[in-house]
Amino acid sequence: MPSQLFFTSFLNHLMAGPVDRAMELLHVPPAYPAAPINNTVAMGFLVFLLLLAYFVAVRLTLSVETPGPVQHIAEMTHEFVSNSGEQIIGHGYERFTNYLTVLLIYILACNLIGLLMPWFESPTENVTAPMGFALVTFVYYHYHGIRANGVGYIKQFLGPVWWLYPLLFPIEIISHLARIMSLTVRLYANIFAGDLLILAFFSLIPVGIPVLFIGLHFGVDIIQAYVFFLLASIYLSMAVAHDH
Amino acid sequence: MYNTMRVMKYFFMTMAAILLASPAFAQAGGDGISQWAPIGAGIGMGIAAGFCGVGQGLATGSAAEALARNPGARPGIFTFLILGLAFIESLTLFTFVIVFLYVK
Q: Which residue in the set B79, B82, B90 is minimally distant from A186, CB to CB?
């Protein structure tokens, strides 16, 4: 039985049975039937619930005359995403604002929840969660590339002249697939290495010094969420760009 | 310059010989992983982190210079700086992940 955080054991206590049966149906029997939900999924779910509560709070306290503090944060986020989107994607960025906002906020919350260390951990500390973000982003930008360019989208995978097509097509396919890997590994390894660093310094000097590294980790969390968001918007802008 | 190149050449030849010799040790140790793996992990991580430092230093230095010349261009420079640093850093992190996967 793997070690479980408080929220994980709570979730397992609540719905181990249904999850077990669902996993049996998908022909992936859980390794530990008493605890089929691991820490990553539980923490991701917790972040999802927190963000849901945040958005509900924003919606309930929405007002033109007396905007509350929650609304201010939401407006700042929206303004930031819109400015970045306009700068990077340009004309027609409004369509992608919702996805990019959710991506930014969710990854940021996932990273930051790991700072409350003994009781919570980052879902992004495990390779599966960043892989999920990267896969969704991959599907999303290809979908919008095809929607914006139609059949002509395949031109982006081919070179400038016809006799380079057979050479460049596999290279482009591989480079697009490598984007998934690089997005995944960048986020996962940063968060994981940061946590490992804090733990290592806790075991060396348990007082005072690790706080420095927690501060560093806080910065890394924000930068990595921003980088993921930035790369997603750059890939989107490249996918929806029209060749003239 | 020529001398330095020669020293470098011998250094890399020695390194190659050492690296080629390591599978022989691995055969003796059994269990799939050589007993020298932690040392290799340390060397690899050190090289990766060192050159990552050089790259990030160059990038940040150029960004600072650009900012000093044209303070008005701050947002654009900042975005590209963060992006470049993330790309440089990710190469080191690939090394870290490989090290972590293969050396327990």
A: B90
